[in-house]
Design goal:
Chain lengths: 536, 536
């Protein structure tokens, strides 16, 4: 286990590697990162760099009274001489073309994307790309050099839409209740992204006008809200997206300040509750071409799970709820300084570890997961989650048993931090949803749990969590430990891969076409499996 | 000749046929319209109706838990069943798709344009189109039924950019001097067009959301200012356009309120001072396929002239100045009520006719043209434009001779209306520019004036003017009169033709590729020809 010091150092290191704004963002301590997590990062290098944009150096003869070609035609014909025929020039590029060509003295890089000029840049400019993962809670953005795939800068911020609803459903409700709700939520996230882009570019000594391509992933609701798409139908059965396919949308149409003709690629969604972020994760972790039987999942309010087996991809989404984000837990909180994130319980004592080594102020997802697993280990609660054992730290509160992780003395907020029966029940619901999803996929594929050869856990919480605890409470399959990989923000990695590689976008499209989506709400066995999985 | 009553009636009729807002717009009195003018209108009927949009009736199965396709995929697959594969859905259409399909109970018309859905309309909706001619002075807009080519409503308004400069050059200067000048000029014309669209739709009992396609023509500067393109380089030698080719731009990107995915087609420009309006005129008048030798011109501050001869198309633009719009003329004014628009001079008297039969307040282009021609006829001025003859109406003003068209008594503004030597000189400059342009084209083609078999005069002023006067002062060639056609707003007609016919757009593209543009400013003979043409 880790000392409080180790954890604190890990957190600081993480903060350095992953610059944060003033908001609190869940960042995995480096010391908790498994080698596998790095290997996902490592795979970036293995990805072939084949960006969808190409730069051509053009030297144009200036116009004179014997050569009256328009600026656009002049550029098009120069490109044609380089073998690039019939390129289109979008209006946003035409808006600048005349000043730009003259300012650059008729020598420039023309950046071409699928037959369209997206930017006219100085000869010495680097080609930059932007990758973003729009999480319900957090935005992660990366600035890349498109030519070599290098990540030049990273940034994380809270998703500002949180002020309009903590989760997807409440944001959809906000849009339903406010005529301009969609516009407001869209604007908020776009403003934040533009600020992040400014910051990333400043950090890399660049300007947003040189960012010629972007890839943005998110769950289906975040995808729709970002693009201003209708979300009402996402909030009610049968929960269909407005659009599933990949989209390429001019950045200016989305309100993002990049190169004038830059496009934003939005990879495809699988279903109303399995979005492009899961697709990106599947791309990055390569489950799409797994020759082994693999489970890959990303735990959140909705947990998306994909099972790869014998060339098939089975996917489902389960409503695991926000308990692991600290919601619906009496003393729950997000992973932020002061959150109890590790718990060890022995016969007579409790050890807690907090993020940043701060006085405890509450408990975050990995902490509550540990607490429940440890209470099971020492026999304090039974397989129904009921307090049955004895422990000096068990107290009675309002006639109910509760486990006191830390008394009010020494806490940051002056109140004790406890885990009660209700909290345990929330964890039961969450873990049962996830386990049931896995079980249904296995059943669909006709295989048993022990046939699963790889188990990939993505996302911030998935990286934080103590694997033993997750297995102990029955959330994950009890497989040999070497089959597990905790891979961090694989969605962000997938977005970066798709940014620098057109082939990876094809992989995503192909993957979505191949996926067999299993709708759990109508699945005949789901209720039964779920009820069974409630037990520890 | 026409009586004042006839003219007044003509003006009123014109106002009925061509609804005007509260601004003064030059409208040809119907009684002055030649049959040829109508035949240009008549050619619309001869144009094959092959719009670039096609409507498909779709009946979609609503989604349910067994059929979770996204709304976009649902629509795409329904179109695919009708043989329209792989259509794209632009973001603006996706923004509405979910509400729209549900509101229409999953039965709709999908309007498709070059593989893209531009609108989802109720089954019973008509497909509408918009044609606009953006003149430097006037905007003319037409609402058409795309299915049968019928013009449902027309409107004319002043170009609001006039407040920023009467002519093209002063508007370019405004943009050069104001950082947001281009944006301001763009916004003003777009706002006015949106208001006109509202009005046209209201008149036809329609809504702008059902306008699924538009064609907009204008001279190169108006084209650039409307699309927000750079104009600085248009204002200085060698006067190259930012873009010459035809453009198809989403209406929303231009700020026009039409169907969500509607496109605006901007036909190609030939040169910095020969724009898409001249191309539209050439399309409408069919000089592009003339088997006769023909001259076609549109008189304005710049007069564009095309000579069609033996399959060749030679085009030039001459700086004829604003004299025929009433500028630089002592008592000059635009064609508006009270403008003297016809003048007859005999040995001892003068007869004047005003627009709207109002008390005279000034003289417009056709009036000053008549006045000069009549002064020549009665020998009052010589071929240099110098007053040499005697007439009771000649007075001395500031030591110079001037012809008094009407004394101050009886005028609308309480001041006499005169024509002085300086005014005559302005007309000499204008007519010489136009005549020299014609001569240079003829010389280029190696033909003599009498070989010209057709002479087409387009535009509002071209329709107003007295042909005999124009020939008398040497502005036009002295050909048998039956070879002349005054065709009214042929640019507007050409725009309407291109609106309802994709083939006509191809004609325009082909025509622009074929045109041999002659730059007069560098033409070796131009100065000489011009000096000679100054004489009457």
């Amino acid at each position: 286990m880790f000392s409080a010091e180790q954890l604190a150092r890990g957190y600081r290191l993480a903060c350095q590697a992953y610059p944060l704004s003033d908001v609190k963002v869940e960042v995995p301590p480096e010391s908790l990162a498994t080698p596998q997590r790095l290997s996902i990062e490592g795979q970036e290098i293995a990805v072939e760099i084949d960006p969808v944009v190409t730069s051509y150096e053009v030297h144009l003869p200036p116009p004179n009274l014997e050569d009256l070609r328009s600026d656009a035609t002049r550029l098009q014909q120069a490109l044609s001489e380089l073998g690039v025929d019939g390129v289109r020039l979008p209006l946003t590029v035409l808006h600048q073309i005349s000043e730009r060509l003259r300012a650059l003295d008729w020598r420039a890089q023309a950046v071409v994307r699928e037959g369209e000029v997206v930017a006219i840049l100085p000869l010495e400019s680097r080609l930059l790309g932007l990758a973003v993962d729009i999480g319900t809670t957090k935005l992660a953005a990366y600035l890349l050099n498109l030519t070599d795939g290098e990540t030049l800068a990273k940034a994380g911020e809270m998703n500002p839409q949180i002020s309009y609803g903590e989760d997807v459903i409440s944001r959809i409700a906000y849009c339903d209740q406010h005529p301009d709700g969609r516009q407001i939520l869209r604007n908020r996230v776009v403003e934040t992204l533009n600020r992040m882009i400014e910051g990333l570019c400043a950090e890399a000594g660049e300007i947003p006008e040189h960012v010629v391509e972007a890839v943005i992933v998110g769950n289906t609701a975040m995808h729709h809200l970002f693009a201003g798409l209708p979300v009402h139908q996402l909030g009610m059965a049968p929960y269909v997206p407005a659009v599933g396919e990949a989209l390429d949308i001019p950045a200016h149409e989305l309100g993002l300040h990049l190169a004038p003709g830059a496009y934003v690629h939005l990879p495809p969604n699988i279903a109303g509750y399995v979005g492009a972020d899961h697709v990106a994760m599947a791309v990055a972790t390569e489950v799409w071409q797994a020759d082994k039987t693999m489970v890959a999942l990303d735990i959140g309010t909705n947990t998306e799970i994909t099972l790869a087996v014998e060339g098939r991809l089975l996917t489902c989404s389960c409503a695991s709820g926000p308990a692991f984000e600290g919601a619906h837990i009496r003393d729950g909180m997000r992973a932020a300084p002061g959150a109890i994130e590790r718990v060890q319980i022995s016969r007579d004592e409790v050890r807690i570890f907090t993020i940043g080594n701060q006085p405890p102020v509450g408990i975050c997802g990995s902490g509550i997961l540990d607490a429940v697993a440890e209470m099971l280990n020492v026999g304090l609660i039974d397989n129904r989650g009921v307090f049955t054992g004895q422990h000096p730290k068990v107290a009675q509160q309002n006639g109910q048993s509760a486990f006191v992780l830390t008394p009010s003395e020494g806490t940051g907020q002056g109140k004790e931090v406890i885990v009660n029966r209700r909290d345990i029940h929330e964890i039961q619901l969450a873990k049962s949803a996830i386990r049931s999803g896995i079980e249904v996929l296995l059943e669909h594929a006709g295989i048993t749990p022990d046939q699963v050869e790889g188990f990939i856990v993505a996302g911030a919480f998935g990286t934080y969590l103590n694997l033993e605890s997750a297995i102990r409470i029955g959330m994950f399959l009890d497989l040999p430990r070497e089959r597990f990989r905790q891979v961090g923000n694989a969605a962000g990695t997938g977005a970066r891969q798709m940014l620098v590689s057109g082939k990876r976008r094809d992989v995503a499209r192909d993957l979505v076409r191949r996926v067999e989506y299993i709708e759990l709400t109508t699945h005949r066995d789901f209720q039964e499996v779920f009820m069974k999985a409630l037990y520890f």
